[in-house]
Predict the structure.
Amino acid sequence: MCAERGNREMSRFFPRFRSRGLLGSDAGKERPSSHAGIAPHERGKTVDAGQCGTKRKGPGTFVRLRYGYLRPDQGLSEWVVPRTRRKMRRMVLRRVALHCGLGLLLWSGCGFYSATPVHPLEVGEIEFDPSTFHTIGLSLPIRSGDEDFDAFVAVFYRPVGSPAWKEALPLQRVRTDTLSHPVPSPFPVGEQFAGSVFGLEPDRAYEIKLEIADPDGPRLTKVKVVRTRKLPPEEVAPVRAISVRSGPEFTQALSDARPGDVIELSDGEYSGPFSLIRSGTEKAPIVLRGRTRSGAVLSSSADYTLSIGGSHVIVEQLTITGRAWAMRITNATDVTVRRTRIEGVQYGINASGGANRNFTICDNRLAGTGVTWPDHSSKTWNFEGIVVTGTGHVICHNTVEGFGDALGLSQHTAIPNRAIDFYGNDVLWGGDDGIELDFSERNVRAWDNRFGNVGMGISFQPIWGGPVYVFRNVIYNTAHAPYKLNQEPSGFHIMHNTAIRPGAAWNQYGGRVSNFSFFNNLTIGTEHAVYMQPALHGAQIDYNGWAPDGKFTMNAKWQDFAELHSGSPFENHGVLLKHPIFARPVPVPKDPSSRMSVPEALELDGKSNAVDAGVRLPNINDDFTGRAPDLGAVERGVPPPQYGVRGERHERTVFSR
């Protein structure tokens, strides 16, 4: 049967999960087959009698479970359970969760089966997204087959010339049947598997190996080589060295710029606006540089103080002020903004619109004036700190404060938002979201960031298929919630984050959230537990730590954590956190209108029940130090990452797991 077949495949690729109990003590045996997830009517298909214990009843098709029936117009929490079997409902819910296991990340075959005949999976060739410094994103198109969604794609990688393969997270099956209806994607999203490999070195060639298994067809192996992107040059040997001392001189230098020009601004104030539409080359970029960061100051009363419309440009060591936006970058490739100070503006860097590729925006300090503390209302929404669209961007180690949305994406783009990295950023305070991953298509990633004193921590409204990865982030003192899952997002993975806030640990409203996982996180409030209003489809929520105790609403209402743990499809391995949680106390204000100090150290107390309570996630927590990974953003014994601006000449692989 399908459950037996799926568990056999999952055990083959991840045998250690059997010993951890992920598949249950009866892994490999037939078990009730549902899905914490996609109901037949939502896929527009009937359910095939004879597959996974389903039973055909004509137009009123029911999904037959071992202890009851699920109508097409119902979710998992609304079973039609015969009265004499009602006592079995909790046990079945738990067994369904065990059957799905880490289905989204670790096995793609957790789902309903359609009445369409099932064919062997046929795939195309590996397609790589633009590589970044430390990650590789890829897609494996599905040409046909796998109508029962039980195929699996394992991922391995190694530097070219290395004898040993390392394991990464398996590719995610993109569920095109669950994409957002309120905010549809303007671009077609194809049937595919997709995913990312992390922790790589810049400018190095890697072999990527995919092992493709479909119980209905033959096994396949595909290997392809790809190179990570190299860092922008620290020093550019000028073809022409141009020194300017006034606004008109700077304007003329920009108008006459050629590849290899290094235009250096002497200390002083330069009144703009300024615009560069000429391009450099990969080997001879155009450089705009201040002699000293605080001394060379650009200002303007126009909408943008500095506009970049050319490619292969480096902007560094400047101070930029203005009435509205500091900078605009559009329809360009390979633009770097680094070690620059942006202050006294309502908006920061607008890198949205057009076809933007391979931007590097790192080690900048941005302080906005459009938002006043502690305003978290809708009036703050449009005051952007750094907003980008396109593909191949790296936004890292910026220190940001005083904007509505500190970091994020936009839907105003000529190409899909793919292969974008946010890491090492430090958001000190803001009005709305710490980071908006809204309008992501696939392989958008945020890790090792810190978001504090904001309205929402991380926003996913929506995600168009994914995968989007969010891990090892610290979120503190949010006015509303740590995560925003609005507008029917589909295809994302939240892992190893630490969220601390006054009030409820997490309140979430909305209609539907699909095809996502939530593993190894700490979600901590001071007064209430969790209220999640949306219908959760294909949701894998397990191995997390929660506080405080109270009512948990996740597709159904559970009176406390013990009932959620024992009777729901969620948190079968999760824990209710016991004090002390952290090695050092973390003072939390009574109300989010009081600013919370940056929690500098979030290492767990040695006696915390969050220690060694996580599940192994390849390529995400390879550095765990105990019997199993710790919960939350910081592993005991592992130095925390550096948040915010680094030293003048410092670039390291912040993700070394």
Q: What stands out?
A: The chain has seven helices and 50 strands.
